[in-house]
Structures are given as C-alpha cells and as structure tokens.
Amino acid sequence: xxxxxxxxxxxxxxxxxxxxxAPRPAAAPAPxxxxxxxxxxxxxxxxxxxxxxxGFRHTRSRLVASGWPRHRGRDLFARPGGPQWAIAKFAYxxxxxxxxxxxxxxxxxRGCSGAWERLGTFRTSDDDxxxxxxxxxxxxxxxxxxxxxxxxxxxxxRHRVHFAVAGDxxxxxxxxxxxxxxxxxxxxxxxxxxxxxxVAVVGELFGGAPPAAHPGAAEAMRALADxxxxxxxxTARPEWLVGSTRAWLRRQGFPPGxxxxxIGVTGAFGGAAAHYKTIELGWLKARTxxxxxxxxxxMPSDVTTYTAAGIAPSxxxxxxxxxxxxxxxxxxxxxxxxxALFSPPAACAP
Length: 350
What we know:
2 domains; globular; alpha/beta
C-alpha cells in the first residue's frame, strides 16, 4: 500500500467494521489449458468435516465470542525434511479479542485430496503461558502452534489445515506447500500491483464493490504457475485481512499459492512495509534456500525489497513505476507481459 498519514487510522477504523469467516467464494472459471503447461495446483476446496459446537470452557470466552470471528491461519512454504508448523490465531470483534484457553479441532487435507484426517484437539494459548516463537510468529495469545513433524510430516505437495473452534464451530484455514528440490518461486505484492488501486480494499470494507484486478494480472500469474513456479503473495495488509485477501485472489482467477500478510492488526506502510517484506523473503530463504526467480511490485519499496533479497533484476517487473528500478523491468500491461512469462517446464512438481 502507498504510505500516507491517514493509512494507520483508516485500518484501525476498518478493523471495527470488517467481518471474517465468510463462506469460501467460487473461483473464477478455469482458463483453457496451455500446451506444455504443468497441471494446475489443486484448489483444496473439499468441504471440511462439519463442526458440532459443544460450548466454551470459560465464561469470558462466551463474551469474547459475541463479536464476529476474525480467525486466521498462517500459510507456509516448507521442505520435506524441515520444520512444518500449522499456526493459527483465534480472535473476535473490533478489538481483536483473543480466544484464550479454549479447544480447537484440527483437520488435514493431505495433498488436497482424499479424506480429511483428524489431527486432534488443541488449546489456544494465553498471555500467562505463551508458546515459543515459531516461523517468526510470536505468541500474542489466542494462537495454536501445531508441529506437523511429530508423526504427521507432510510430503511434497500442497496441503490444507482446517481449524474449528469447539465452542462455536467458527473456523480458520491455512495452506502449506512442501517444495521439492529445485523448486522456483515468484513473489508478488497485492495492493496496486494486482489490484486496481493502492487503497481499493478500503472501499470494499466500507461496503463498496470489491477491487478489480489489473487486466491480465491473473493471466500473468497463471503463466508462471503453468511453468511450474510456486506463487508467493506478500502483502503488508493486517493479519485479519488474510481471509478476504485469499477470497479476492480466488474470485479473480489467480492461481493458488502461499499468502502472507503482516502479523499485526494495522498492517504496515512505507519503510515498515519494505522492512516486513524483506524479512518475509529472508525467512523464505532460511526455510527453503530459495531466492525467488521473479518479483512483481509497483512501489519504490518493492524495488528496495527485491534488490535486498537478491532477485535478479531481469526477473523483477514493476507496474507503471518510474525512477531507478535497479535494472528491473517497467511495464504497463500484464496482457502483453503474460506470454513472455510462460516457459515449458522440464518437470512438474505435485
């Protein structure tokens, strides 16, 4: 997002009117298959087991849950032999009140196919007994940290974890992509890079129409996915917008990928946004050894971030951005860019 003096205030106000937990939206119609392309990654949209609410353990939790649910899961890239965490946050209402000391049921759709596996019942954290930081996510209360390496390790492929609050049946989802050796990743900003404007999300949250995508943007990302490249959507939006952001990407026809927001309730702007994205790409390299092959942005901060991450300038594309692009590529039409982004892959990963 473009920095501005009202931006933090706007997001603070929006946090009092936005609602999470909406049904999964229908995806845009699938485009015709491209000759020589990898099969599309699974949408992972099988309905999870029905939740049967059984009431909360604590009286306070009933009061907290009188607000609307703003639960969210944290997507993850992982390696087969590395750490594999499923991390989610459970909170309600305009103040993002944590749901502490309550049971959450967890389910896994391994490989995005077959039957859902029940992983067990887990208890949300509280401020008095925080969980150690994992995957760079500190425990601020109301979180579940599920270590999948303890007898549940995931193979190469895309997987979905579904959490349901035992007290009321509200839920959160996350996606994990376990990458094979040689995997390639493309990272893209969202606001202004894929959406029609930097602040389009503001109008939507105040009851306006959802933002449009730049013409051809979804097609360009599909060209990369068809080439076997994994998509990493990185936005400085606040954490509670992960669900609506994922829904927007799906509606607009963007290919499945890993989505990260900030972990705060107000998001990040300007230099703080660049710092956040730099940390994200640092974590990607630390976890997987991967430096993205492509980067897409629309702000000088994106140039700074992608340069610092070591992405080759020839793989960096900046939408309608002037100034010093550090060797990156200026473009003003994704429709013209998309054909050049497809490269028939030698092999396709699950």
